Amino acid sequence: MPDLKIPGRDHGPDEIAGHDPVFGPVSAALAVLMAIFSLLAWADPATADDLAASDAAAGHQGQVTIIVLPPGTSPADLGGLEHAAIGLMNPGLGDVSAQQTWLDVSQGARAFDSAYDTPLDRVYPGGEFAQGWEKVIRRAKSSEATVIPGLLASVLASRDIDAVAVDSAGAAALTVARRDGGVARAPQACGGPESMLDSDSPGVDAAIPGCPDPVTVLSMPLDSAFDASENRKRGDLQIFIEQPPAGSGDQLSIAIAGPGMGGELQSPSTRTDGYVLSTDIAPTILAHFGIDVPKAMTGQPIGSGGKLDVEKLTDLENRYEQVGKRRGAALAIPLLLWIVLAGLVSFASRGLYARPALRLLCLSTILLPAVLLLTAALEPSLAVERAIATLLPVLVAAILMRIAPGWLSLALACGLTVIPYGIDMLAGSALTPRAVIGPNPGLGARFYGIGNELESTLMVLTSIGTGAALTWSGTGGRRAAGWFLALGAAATVVFAAGRFGADVGAAIVFPVSAVVAAAFAAGRPRLAWIGLAAAVAALLLIALADTVTGSETHFVRSIFGGTGGSVFETVGHRLDATLESFTKVSRIPVTLIALALIAAAVWKRRIVLGWFAGSPMMIPAIAAAAAGSLVGALTNDSGALFIQVGTLYLALVAGFAWTTSK
Fold first, then answer.
1. What are the residues whose beta carbons fall under 8 Å from the beta carbon of 593, sequence distance 6 or more?
2. 474 burial level (CB within 10 Å; 0-12, 13-18, 19+)
3. What is the dihedral of CA 310, 312, 317, 319, to 10 degrees?
4. How many CB atoms lie under 10 A from the CB of residue 297?
5. What DSSP character marks residue 225?
6. How far is Cα of residue 284 from the mean position of the Cα atoms in its chain?
7. DSSP 294
8. What pTM value is reported for the model?
9. CA 471 – CA 482 distance, rounded (Å)
10. In angstroms, rounded to a whole number, what is the distance separating the alpha carbons of residues 226 and 218?
11. Which candidate, 41, 172, 313, 600, has a CA 20 to 30 Å from the CA of 413?
């Protein structure tokens, strides 16, 4: 039996806690940071027993056949399969090769290419062993995540369940490669055209004659797949997967025929009807045989439900492919256009219309994420989405300027953006993953809740919107502090809890910003340090709530799942990811502009603070947004993004304050 023990390696959560050097000495902040890392590394490294799953198995429940279908097979093409649930499968993180997709299936887990120290060399199943397997194993060990190629077949072998591949399977045979690279081969008659006709061939009682093994991987045309599904025996599980195109990263068509299957495929990994992950295949097979899923597998067993809607699946596939591609057109282009127009209006009018132009720019930028949530519901063409994103925020901003005086317009704009996203989280992330500013499902990392872009944006707008509303209403002191804390706590639950927003970073930045704002509002800014303790408490409470409610997330699995490394390994990996976000060539220009604006604001801080002289509750809001952005930058693998987003909004709010000053 192969050794199933996992070497101790890091598999940290999506985000980790950090520090804010604005409010105290760096050494104290680092101590808090190390404490939070320690909390996230409680679990011991996985053991051999963890990987092999429990000794109790429910016994053989019927054969499992993975049938690879020709490229270009659509969900509509799979409608003729008997007793099958149909959907789409995300093939990997980013644009991955077909070999990487099948390796991810074999290990039930995956990582970004950037997590490995080398690219995937050519690996293919040749004979009884996969060629190039030694490099695959060395590459997997270099990843900051725990990925174990061949884990599925090795766990099955430890239960005396044979997993074999037919020659026709090609690269898909890597699915049943064992941890030592061995690939068991099916009988020659398995899956061949003669075997479909020869009733005397071995394994005639199987759905596919000549294939007697418990788990078989093979390739066949679509019409033969229909025949196989018609001949499926009771208790058998058939998994039909479209052959991945080379390095495209496009979504794949998938269907599963088996006990209780029907309608659309469902997975807790995505929480999206009709959408599953490549890493869900291995847990599904193990669950079929009654074997506990190893902790090293991050996928979840696939189920089914609802009514099949092929048109909806097609729309979902098209939208997911467009979300990441449209960010520049629907997000950056309108913003740049508004900035240029505001500058031209100010210059042409010799400053006469500079104040209304700047106020309109600020409100439009705040409203843009809300409009992108609307276009996610409409799913228009690129040209229409770009037009809506450019014109609608300006129109709504102009209306707010007309009907709401002073800071009330800013408070309403923030509310019109934050509240709809909160409602969508409570409703199960129906629209946010389809929004251009939301998580990018096509990338393969996030499929529900909010991503880093929204985490940084919504934290700033919650702080600014609360401060603007309190300023307009004239509320201050302890009552204002209470409002900051209450709204910050509500936002933490909605955007951080695994059942809703499922963003671990939100459990850090929202409490920090809320406590900082409350401390300044109450006139006791030194208490802002309590924000770090609040972040620790929020992390633990969110983890406890997710565990109790069964909302398993990557964060919970990292703490209690036993896949983490040492504290120092976790710190090292996270700091490397944070540093990398600041050194990416594509982000350097924007980051430099943000840092230049910060330096200018510090240099002219007396002038800037003077703009807020008549707006006392905006100072706590600004301090909160700045603190949350800084902590997010230090604790998030997209650290530069927090600096960029925070600086953009705070600069615009400072400009808004200038328009209200005398």
1. none
2. exposed
3. 160
4. 24
5. H
6. 21
7. P
8. 0.80
9. 14
10. 14
11. 600
Distances (CA, A) of 573 to 525, 566, 593: 33, 11, 27
Helix, strand, coil % over all residues of the chain, rounded to 5 = 55, 10, 35
Please answer whether residues 178 and 157 qualify as being in contact, where contact means their C-beta atoms are separated by less than 8 angstroms.
Answer: yes
Question: Which DSSP string corresponds to 383-403?
Answer: HHHHHHHHHHHHHHHHHHHHH
pLDDT of 555 reads 57
Domain locations in the chain? 31-54+450-662, 61-110+149-317, 324-448
Q: Are the C-beta atoms of 455 and 625 separated by less than 8 Å?
A: no
C-alpha distance from residue 254 to each of 123, 236, 395, 539, 564 (Å): 24, 17, 43, 36, 32
Amino acid at 117: D
List 241's β-bridge partners, or say none: 68, 254
pLDDT at residue 54, rounded to an integer: 32
Query: CB atoms < 10 A from the CB of 408, how many?
Result: 16
What single string gives the DSSP state of each residue in 136-159?
A: HHHHHHHSSS---TTHHHHHHHHT
CATH 3.40.720.10 correct for 61-110+149-317: yes
List pLDDT tens digits, range 335-385.
999 999 999 999 999 999 999 999 999 999 999 999 999 999 998 988 899
CA–CA gap between residue 320 and residue 635 (Å, rounded): 28
Q: Are 4 and 154 in contact (CB under 8 A)?
A: yes
Q: Name every residue whose Cβ is closer than 8 Å to that of residue 11 and which is 6 or more positions away in sequence.
A: 144, 145, 146, 558, 561, 563, 564, 565
Residues 242-266 pLDDT 10s:
999 866 668 899 999 998 899 999 9
What CA–CA distance (Å, rounded) separates 105 from 447? 18
Name beta bridge partners: 265: 304
For residue range 279-334, list pLDDT tens digits in order.
Answer: 999 999 999 999 999 989 989 999 999 999 999 998 888 888 888 778 777 788 99
Identify whether the C-beta of residue 107 lies closer than 8 Å to the C-beta of residue 148.
Answer: yes
CA–CA separation, 452 and 186 (whole Å): 46
Locate 329 and state its tokens.
């057109």
The partner residues of 64 in beta bridges, in order of sequence, read 215, 237
Place of tokens 């941890």: 179
**Radius of gyration for the alpha carbons in the chain, expressed in angstroms and rounded:** 27
Which of 231, 218, 227 lies closest to 186, judged by CA? 218
pLDDT tens figures, 563-578: 444 444 545 555 666 6
Enter the DSSP assignment of 55.
S
Q: Is the pLDDT reported for residue 197 higher than 70?
A: no
Could you say which DSSP state residue 191 is in? T
Helix 477-496 vs helix 506-521: crossing angle, to nearest 10: 180
Q: Which residue has the tokens 């809890």?
A: 497
pLDDT band for position 658 (cuts 50, 70, 90): very high
Whether the CB-CB separation of 559 and 13 falls below 8 Å is answered with yes
The answer to whether 254 and 79 have CB atoms below 8 angstroms apart is: no
Side chain identity at residue 642, one-letter code: F
How many whole angstroms separate alpha carbon 29 and alpha carbon 26? 5
- Report the pLDDT value the prediction gives residue 201, as an integer from 0 to 100: 44
Cα(159)–Cα(145) distance, integer angstroms: 26
- CA distances to 175, 294, 421, 542 from 182, rounded to whole Å, are 11, 20, 49, 42
Q: Does 31 have pLDDT greater than 50?
A: no
Q: Mapping DSSP to helix (H, G, I), strand (E, B) and coil, where does residue 85 land?
A: strand
